[in-house]
Design brief:
Number of domains: 2
Order of helices and strands: EHEEHEHHEHEEHEEEHEEHEHH
Radius of gyration: 19 Å
Structural class: alpha/beta
Number of strands: 13
CATH class of the largest domain: Alpha Beta
Strand content: 15-25%
CATH architecture of the largest domain: 3-Layer(aba) Sandwich
Mean pLDDT: 94
Helix content: 25-40%
CATH superfamily of the largest domain: NAD(P)-binding Rossmann-like Domain
Low-confidence stretches: none
């Protein structure tokens, strides 16, 4: 499938990862429509393509609006979601309305209008605490946060719609993506704290938490490449960088990137409710489609430092 002149809808497209997907789609000649309620998205994320896209402010919870925008689309990337675990704990009703009901609206319209592919952004939070690592796609799904459960509902609906209605659905479970335009999460937060005070750095948790970081350009490319891969229909894939590190290791790498040797690091011993201690992705499945990260963590942190400064 060629993207040239194809109409593509990206929900949540003004957000961190989806704005990079929009960049790739525009570069390949797609006619991109972005739907975003701007609860987390930023117009500056799309400044480089603002003259090449149609931008609509609205929510996936608005079924009529979603249906109007999906009509005529070849591809739909559904990124619209609350992706903030602490916020999902505080406002589970908002989380569910966007992540689950919003996905229902998108799938229903995709089915009605015969969309060629629907790509659903899912999350490693659907796994919950690991029973083994690395976690492959066959790992039991037992989320421990409202966010994880709402995303699992969206994922399960998409697979059910595929089996029941032949909806051409694919989901990608994002582990930890970082890079330019990132608005929060551990790497961003650590850099911001160091900018505020390079002498003392407070870090949530024990430092033993394990994460598997993927540079945003690699995550975005995986979404677009899988959207063009017919063998990926009706399936689910993990996406990560393939080189898991502890938070303590990550902190050391960031301080080294910034050339800091005297920073006092303090670990609080506790993190937020719903935080998973060990997130390590099994990547054999997505590697089988040709995926391979192009930016390792050392290089990615250098690029991140250049952007955030």
């Amino acid at each position: 499938m060629s993207l040239a002149q194809s109409r593509v809808l990206v929900t949540g497209g003004a957000g961190f990862i989806p704005s990079h997907v929009v960049d790739l789609l525009v570069a390949q000649g797609a006619k991109v429509v972005v739907l975003d309620d701007m609860s987390a998205g930023k117009t500056e994320n799309l400044v480089g393509v603002k003259d090449d896209i149609e931008f609509v402010v609205g929510s996936v919870a608005d079924a009529e609006l979603v249906d109007r925008l999906v009509k005529g689309c070849h591809l739909v990337f559904n990124f619209a979601a609350n992706a903030d675990v602490p916020r999902s704990v505080k406002f589970p009703e908002v989380d569910f309305a966007t992540n689950a009901v919003g996905a229902f609206n998108v799938y229903t319209s995709c089915r009605r209008h015969g969309v060629a592919r629907i790509m659903q952004a899912s999350t490693a939070a659907v796994y919950g605490e690991p029973e083994y690592t690395p976690m492959d796609e066959r790992h039991r799904l037992r989320p421990i946060s409202p966010y994880g459960s709402s995303k699992l509902a969206a994922e399960a609906m998409g697979l059910a719609w595929h089996h029941t209605y032949a909806l051409p659905f694919t989901a990608i479970r994002i582990f930890n993506t970082y890079g330019p335009r990132q608005p929060r999460y551990v790497i961003y937060d650590l850099f911001r704290k160091i900018q505020a005070n390079s002498q003392r750095l407070e870090v949530l948790g024990t430092g033993e938490q394990i994460r598997d970081y993927c540079y945003v350009a690699d995550t975005a490319a995986a979404f677009v490449n899988l959207a063009l891969n017919p063998t990926a229909v009706g399936d689910v894939y993990n996406i990560a960088g393939g080189s898991p590190v502890s938070i303590k290791q990550l902190v050391a790498m960031i301080l080294d990137t910034l050339g800091l040797t005297d920073t006092e690091v303090y670990y609080t011993g506790q993190s937020w409710p719903g935080d998973i201690n060990r997130l390590v992705a099994g990547l054999d499945k997505i590697r089988g489609t040709g995926f391979a990260p192009t930016v390792d963590l050392t290089e990615g942190l250098k690029r991140f430092a250049a952007w955030i400064e």
